[in-house]
């Protein structure tokens, strides 16, 4: 029976959890998630919850829980970092009317926990935490090595019928897949790093300008040469989430070095030294020792995401710079599409050929879109980080034209045409249409 196929998902991040939940909702009864972490105590910073993500989470029954503590954004300001001068202001309240969901910002933990809670309610999903997966093998009967964390003697090979690897930007499964296909594509160094900071309302309350920031329903981006800061209130406006992007100077350029490091506060203050006094006061609230710096990594596009009965999901196949706030949204779109194409009724005979055909439809619906957004996010970073010169002057003219309500928004995530392309497309509908076009018709 196709609904009892052994589905193995590697990684319990947004991509893995969304994939498991979508497959459970589509009728699969035998789904196992393998995750290295011994427990899923989700922590971390804020995250933008775009309408294309919200639409899927609502279908999966997770959205209400997230929306209850998220903040709805009514507008966004793009400001010059050095002066705090307004460059552009875009109202976002049209988003809900147009796309059915508002643009919200929330706590990463709330997004992950609601997906995890959804998975826990599904008897068909089993978690194998503390499982390090390596040496995946592909073809019609995928398998991989499972090493229990802390118990290497119990290492064993596990077989499955469908292998879905959502093991993140450092994906070992991607490496194994490329080796097996005799192909190369490498992790690219973006040359950028990010500080991720969360300030509490109490920390900001004494300063009227900072208090106004946490009280507004606003996403603010302060831009400067080769760097920017984006910030918004989360957790019912009890936390102000700040994320930066600047040249990476603290990490080795070797691709395998750590992705996070304890940053130095004085180095951070130095990087934003030419930003305005209000930003200095804001950054200065971060306690010494609490500065965390992330390396931002991307990857060369892969020729394919699919090998036999296996596929890559999320950052494992399309890691995206955060400048469009779409990485997790795209991982969740992957999961939703996998739920459609691999529905037990569509791969009724459960054969490796049917599974491979379904995974190819997944790739056809997802790859071009996700990779276009990877490129658009990188381009948005380049635009926001312009220094002096002609290109900057042109950009600032476009910002200036916005004041009379005209023209495109240089900060692409706030541009109406880009939003239409990202939020206006329902990937589940697209997947249904693609299944029909490929003859992957539900058989009851
Ligand atoms: C600064 C910053 C800001 C961002 N802001 C946004 C935003 O506003 N909106 C948005 O949509 N996206 C945003 N993103 C992107 C988003 O965080 C990622 O795209 C998303 O988390 C990717 O999810 P994933 O499930 O593919 O991978 P991950 O979240 O990396 O999950 C991978 C999982 O696999 C596990 N794993 C790895 N290797 C193994 C192994 N060998 N065996 C078993 N388990 C393994 C890991 O422990 C992990 O749990 C941002 C990213 C950054 C860096």
Automatic annotation (TrEMBL):
GO molecular function, one term: monooxygenase activity
Source organism, top-level taxon: Eukaryota
The keyword Flavoprotein belongs to this UniProt entry's keyword annotation: yes
Keywords from the UniProt entry: FAD, Flavoprotein, Monooxygenase, Oxidoreductase
Domain FAD-binding: 6-193, 302-376
TM annotation in the entry: none
Family as reported in the entry's similarity comment: Belongs to the paxM FAD-dependent monooxygenase family.
This protein's name: FAD-binding domain-containing protein
Source species of the chain: Periconia digitata
Source species taxonomy: Eukaryota, Fungi, Dikarya, Ascomycota, Pezizomycotina
């Amino acid at each position: 029976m196709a609904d009892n196929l052994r589905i193995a998902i590697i990684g319990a991040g947004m991509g893995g959890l969304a994939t498991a939940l979508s497959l459970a909702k589509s009728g699969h009864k035998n789904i196992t998630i393998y995750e290295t972490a011994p427990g899923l105590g989700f922590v971390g910073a804020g995250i933008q919850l775009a309408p294309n993500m919200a639409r899927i989470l609502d279908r999966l029954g997770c959205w209400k829980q997230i929306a209850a503590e998220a903040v709805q954004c009514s507008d966004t300001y793009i400001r010059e970092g050095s002066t705090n001068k307004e460059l552009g202001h875009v109202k976002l309240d049209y988003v809900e009317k147009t796309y059915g969901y508002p643009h919200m910002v929330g706590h990463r933990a709330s997004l992950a926990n609601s997906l995890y809670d959804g998975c826990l309610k599904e008897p068909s999903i089993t978690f194998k935490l503390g499982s390090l997966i390596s040496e995946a093998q592909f073809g019609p009967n995928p398998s991989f090595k499972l090493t229990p964390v802390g118990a290497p003697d119990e290492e064993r090979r596990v077989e499955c019928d469908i292998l879905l690897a959502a093991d993140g930007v450092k994906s070992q499964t991607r490496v194994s897949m490329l080796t097996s296909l005799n192909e190369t594509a490498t992790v690219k160094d973006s040359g950028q790093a990010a500080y991720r900071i969360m300030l509490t309302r109490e920390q900001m309350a004494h300063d009227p300008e900072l208090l106004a920031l946490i009280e507004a329903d606003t996403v603010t981006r302060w831009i400067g040469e080769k760097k920017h800061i984006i910030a918004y209130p989360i957790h019912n406006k009890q936390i102000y989430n700040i994320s930066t992007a600047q040249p990476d100077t603290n990490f080795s350029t070797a691709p395998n070095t750590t992705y996070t490091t304890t940053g130095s506060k004085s180095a951070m203050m130095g990087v934003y030294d030419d930003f305005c006094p209000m930003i200095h006061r804001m950054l200065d609230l971060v306690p010494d020792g609490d500065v965390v710096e992330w390396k931002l990594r991307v990857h060369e596009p892969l020729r394919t995401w699919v090998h036999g009965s296996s596929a890559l999901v999320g950052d494992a196949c399309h890691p995206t710079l955060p400048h469009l706030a779409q990485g997790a949204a795209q991982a969740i779109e992957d999961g939703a599409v996998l739920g459609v194409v691999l529905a037990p009724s569509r791969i009724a005979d459960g054969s490796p050929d049917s599974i491979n055909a379904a995974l190819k439809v997944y790739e056809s619906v997802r790859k071009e879109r996700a990779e276009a957004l990877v490129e658009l996010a990188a381009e948005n970073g380049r635009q926001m980080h312009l220094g002096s010169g002609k290109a900057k002057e042109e950009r600032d003219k476009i910002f200036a034209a916005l004041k009379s309500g005209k023209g495109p928004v240089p900060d692409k995530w706030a541009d109406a045409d880009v939003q239409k392309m990202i939020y206006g497309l329902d990937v589940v509908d697209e997947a249904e249409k693609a299944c029909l076009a490929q003859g992957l018709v539900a058989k009851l």
